[in-house]
Amino acid sequence: MKKLLFLTLAILTLSLSAPVMAQAPDLRVESPLTVELRESMKNQFRQLRPWVENGALGFKMDGTIVVRDPSVVPLSERQALTILLNANARDKAALYREIARLNGQPQLEQEVAASTASRMRDRMPAGWWIQDDNGNWAQKEAAE
User: In angstroms, rounded to a whole number, what is the distance separating the alpha carbons of residues 66 and 124?
Assistant: First the structure.
């Protein structure tokens, strides 16, 4: 009887102390702010896309777009490109924060960022540059 009581208490203690698994956040939630941020990022990407396609820019593992090969960007255009990249990174961070908030899970902002970046990498065309966790660059290969 004592063993059964001890076992029951142990299971109850473990179940109460185990972390509760949160539901994965819905990345498609909308608010006026998410609509505004997504539209801003689309406009920014229209300007960034030629630089992505010629290999000057690449995607870090977190989805941030960065200068991969500065030699491809003329000196006269670097400042404007840097301003655009910074605006894109700010909007992306604000979007992730808002999505987490709308899901009622503001602590999951990093998970929202990781999920979004993963989906983005899966959907991007072959040939675009992606940085791995070690900082190495490689072009995305075509799906087989």
Answer: 16
Through-space distance between the first and last CA atoms of the chain, rounded to whole angstroms: 60
Tokens of 32: 């006026």
pLDDT of 136 strictly over 50: yes
d(CA 65, CA 90): 11
Q: List Cβ neighbours of 82 (8 Å cut-off, separation of 6 or more).
A: 67
Question: Tokens in use for 96?
Answer: 């992730």
Residue 40 sits at the vertex; the CA angle it makes with 39 and 41, to the nearest 5 degrees, is 90
Confidence of residue 24 (pLDDT cuts 50, 70, 90): confident
Contact 57, 128 (CB under 8 A): no
Sheet holding 57-59, edge to edge: 65-67, 57-59, 129-131, 137-139
